[in-house]
Amino acid sequence: GAPGGGYCHACGAKFSSIVGHREIEAGYEGQDGSFHHALWDVWSRHVEPLVPPGVVERMHEALKADRKKMAWLDRQRSISKKTVDALQMGWNAENDRLTFPIPNDYGLWVNVRQWDWQHKYEAKFLHWGAKGFGRNRLYPAWAMEHQELVWVEGEPDLACAMSLGYAAVTGGPADSWREEWGPLFKGKHVAVYAQAALSVRDR
Asked: Whole-prediction pTM value?
């Protein structure tokens, strides 16, 4: 067969990858988004836990439909609607936290960082689940395409910096830095904002 191809002796199916096999096995083949559904199945079973399908999209729509929260983000944190859409920010009605979904390199949601924007709780941020969702990642990964970057502490400041026109990236809180990230910044010009929240005063 062709390189990378496969054949299932049990069902007789031919496929190009394990994801392609899952498309056929689960009956996704021919449906809209079939590859993405199959990739989610394979990844969540064999690689790492993932946020269930549809969760991020529902929370994103809930935030956009709430004019008061959108106005607060704009006035108090200088976070624009364009940035809300770019980052797929949302609102979790169960705990009244604003959310930042974190994708991996394949566009699968591997975490939802949940921000206590009203200072109701002891924990400023929550991960999506208790186990497997808390790994620190460069966010958003696509910002690393830029040669000039602003490094900030946390997702709210990241969203503000983006709204102000900066190419910004974060790894989470101040103690989240991972040594393996160092080479990724080689040759780049990076301005570091540490322990100082960006806000409307920085417009």
From this structure: 0.79
